[in-house]
Amino acid sequence: MTLDSAWERFLVAARGGTPDRVPVALIVDSPWLPGYAGMNMLDFFLYPDRWLAAYLDIIARFPEVVWVPGFWVEYGMANEPSAFGAPILWRHDAPPAMRHLALPPEQWADLPHPDPETDGLMPLVLRRLENLEHGGGLPEPHRIRMVAARGPLALATHVLGTTEFLEATAAEPEAVAAALDIFTDTVIAFLRAQLDRLREPVGILMLDDIPGLLSPRAFNRVALPYLQRIFDAFDGLLRLYHNDTPCAHLLPHLGQLHCEVLNFSHEMPIGEVKAALGPRIALMGNVPPLSLMVRGTPHEVEEAARACIAEGGPDGLILSAGGGVSPGTPAEHIDALVRAAQG
Predict the structure, then answer these.
(1) Mean local confidence (pLDDT), 45-60
(2) At 266, which CATH number?
(3) Contacts of 243 (CB under 8 A, 6+ apart)
(4) How many domains does the chain have?
(5) pLDDT tens across 169-204, in order?
(6) Using one digit for the tens of pLDDT, what is the confidence trace for 268-281?
(7) Which of 198, 240, 226 has the alpha carbon at shortest distance from 71?
(8) CB–CB of 179/122 below 8 Å?
(9) Domain membership of residue 320 as a residue range
(10) Helix, strand or coil for residue 37?
């Protein structure tokens, strides 16, 4: 496997090591990239050549940055929920939104068990990956290194409704467990199907902010077993967990997760997170994605990035935003992250 220097640094830090300099990695998808590329949101999803050109452009423009997961074939939040029949609201200027299903908890055990090869938008994702990796769509020497999926609780809220699901965690624990078993199996199957299409995979990205809304006791009961089941299914690969809900109350419990990297909220001081989690989990953060990465100045971004390195580095640190890249983030602010990482 041939990796460029940015990916080599990323993987060294992700495994707790100290690369020659702090790597920079950013989670990017449809909230940011179409606007940066000057594209209509629907065109971004509809025209694979324009979608690919947008990704190739940012790789060329920012060679020191690892884009996570990179060449992300996604339709906003709709990939997995669409397989359960959740309606999709398409928009010209924002990623698609989901309308949850009006299902009472007593029906949650009867949710379908989707097949990623046939159900919802997942087959379109898989076919795009095939064309990119094996059909000549992805120019050499590029590879898709990581695949991504929403986590089981995020999927539950998109399909069943956030309020409905969270209330049920206390009032209908058996229904919640039944639903989460199905959603967890779906996440694992979808990630495996994506990995099967890649030539040189290195890891997975799972995104699930909903566990951050739970109490420590509820997290251990409702979230931890299902997150662990997913991470354990991909032992041997790099496992990156994104949860940018402020959840300092869960830090002792997040340290139990069987993942290598945590991308977390900018509202949680990186030094405190490092002290709580220890050296086993690398940190990916932690510059504020909206107040600084969008609304700040390049100097302010660079100063915040240097502070993150001083508090959270140098070992096991991947410099990033405290969450995904927000709409409207200018190129100059990404350049500022790179300057800070270069010393």
Answers:
(1) 97
(2) 3.20.20.210
(3) 207, 208, 209, 211, 212, 254, 262, 263, 264, 265
(4) 1
(5) 999 999 999 999 999 999 999 999 999 999 999 999
(6) 999 999 999 999 99
(7) 198
(8) no
(9) 5-342
(10) helix
